[in-house]
What we know:
Blueprint: H1 4-15, E1 22-25, H2 33-40, E2 48-55, E3 61-68, E4 71-73, H3 75-83, E5 88-90, H4 93-100, E6 118-121, H5 122-125, E7 130-133, E8 139-143, H6 146-149, E9 154-157, E10 161-163
Amino acid sequence: MISDDDRARLDAALRGLGVPYELFPCDPALADTAQFCAAYGFSMDESANTIVVVGKSEPRRYAACLVLATHRLDVNRAVRDKLGTRKASFAGADETRELTGMEIGGVTPFGLPPDLPIWVDAAVMARPRVVLGGGSRSWKVIAPPEILTALSSAEVVEGLAAPYDPPREEAAPPA
């Protein structure tokens, strides 16, 4: 079910950024990127995921990272180094929900806590438009990537992620 409250909260977070955007409703069961793209005709290389990461130190340090769906976040080097911790990992679903108030599959950079850094992989900024989570599994945001740099806590990071080529299935040898 698509909530008017979710839309109003999202609109409020986006309205003052001065960048045009479109809110796109989606079936919550299809919110995960691959399913969303297949169902609604979007390309994986224009979809960007917001991933909350955590540095495994005390006190714990967090950041929200935005990477294209065709890229893999470099948690073990780029994120760890940027957090300044010896170890880093993806935040779990409960930790993400507690920190952001959002479910995985709907996390958006808009409306995050103001002290949470937002790191945007440079490849995201090279796209003419990006499809982003909308704060719930019922909404996506479609906008030029400049909407991300309109956020005061956003920083573009070169090399935060790298293109990912999923393994291809090997053809069976001839019989």
